[in-house]
Amino acid sequence: MAWEFWAAVAAMGVITWLSRALPFLLRDDHRVLRSISASGSPWRALGPCLIAAIAAVIVVPPLSSMPWIEGVPYVCGLGVTATVAYKTHNTGAAVIIGMAIFGMLLWLCA
Length: 110
Fold this sequence. Notes:
It contains five helices and no strands. The chain is mainly α.
C-alpha cells in the first residue's frame, strides 16, 4: 500500500514538473509545443485535470468517513472553487477564494 502512494506522488511530481519545464526546455517552434498549445488539443486540459485529481485524492477520503454535516465546508469550498474557476478562468483566484470559504465554513461549523 505504501509503494502505491509514493508511486502516485512521484507520477504527479513528474507530470507537474514536465508541464512547467517543457516550455523552457524546448524552442518556441518545436512541434511538441505546437501540438500542446493548438486549440482543441487534449493536452490543454492537463493543468486543470492535475488540480482536480489532486483535490479528489485529498478531499474524497475524509468525506467518505464523516457525518454529512461535517462535509458541508468541503462541498461548499469545492463548489465555490469550481464556480469561480469557471467564471473567471483564473485557477489561482478560484483556489484562494474556495479555501477562504472552506476555512470560514469550517470555523462556523466547529
